[in-house]
Amino acid sequence: MRIWVRILLGAALLSVALAVGGALLHKSGIASFGPVSLIVQAGFGLSIIVAVCTIVTLFVSILRKQPYGLFTMFATFLICFLLGGYAAFIFNKVSNSPFLHNVSTDLVEPPVFSEAMLERRGPNSNPVTFDEHTKQLHREAYGDVQPVVVQTSESMSFSKALELVQDRGWEIVTMDEQAGVIEATATTFWMGFKDDVAIRMRRNEEANATTIDIRSISRVGRTDLGKNAARIREFLKDLNEVLPQS
User: Fold this and answer.
1) Which residues pair with 201 in a beta bridge?
2) Is the Cβ–Cβ distance between 219 and 194 less than 8 Å?
3) 183 with 158: CB under 8 angstroms?
């Protein structure tokens, strides 16, 4: 029994090492998304198996009146419960998120990525095009993601947008004030996923206003778990606070 309890604790620690280690491997650029995804999923799966085995072991030890290693089993179960709970949270988000990784305020004429950005994305990244099926999913899931129209010059809009990009710590790839375009890359904290952002400002002299569009697209993964839409909403919300609306 003692050896078995220690094995369970070791397996619980191994599950954490797989989940955290896999994330760090991807964030550091050592391993690509495919292998890392399998490693992290293995960690999640192992934590669930160990949690079940720990509960069974606890009941057996109580029935046999040999409650050895109760603290160790409790620690083992707690580790697996926390990791398994996080896995369940991710699974729930995947189940309730549309299979989209490309979000834009303009689906008819979305901001176009430059050659410099496309080169950074690489040939194995998600495609940057919108097909009709993707557009329909986008309209159903993110109908509220719309352009912002402000009563400021294109230059002022560009300046404020650039400040927000810098405040967020996004890596600026290109910026062209005359064209009214900013391109940057946002990196997620946990897995280090790279999401590319394009911000476009277009002046409408007749309306005396500037239309601001933003696009955010993940390099890997079929779904972004709603991250790109959330990024756009937060950015436009902050932009609304510093620029007068038309």
Assistant:
1) 212
2) yes
3) no
Task: Give the pLDDT score at 246.
Answer: 58
> Which stretches does DSSP call E strand in the chain?
102-104, 148-150, 171-176, 181-187, 194-204, 209-218
What tokens were used for 54? Answer: 């720990």
Last residue of a domain, one of 96, 130, 160: 96
* C-alpha closest to that of 198 among 211, 185, 214, 178: 214
Give yes or no: residues 39 and 160 share one domain.
no
* Sign (positive or negative) of CA dihedral 173, 175, 180, 184: positive
Query: Domain range for residue 202?
Result: 102-242
The predicted model gives 123-136 an average pLDDT of 92
CB atoms within 10 A of CB 240: 13
Distance in angstroms (rounded) separating the CA atoms of residues 211 and 143:
18
Q: How far apart are CA 235 and CA 123, in angstroms?
A: 28
Give tens-digit pLDDT for 22-68. 999 988 888 888 899 999 999 999 999 999 999 999 888 888 877 67
CATH code for the domain in which residue 215 is found: 3.30.530.50
How much is the CA Rg of the chain, to the nearest whole Å? 24
- Do 42 and 135 fall into the same domain? no
179 and 159 together in one domain: yes
pTM of the model: 0.84
Are 184 and 87 found together in one domain? Answer: no
| Distance, CA of 233 to CA of 141 (rounded, Å) | 13
* Most distant CA pair in the chain, distance: 85
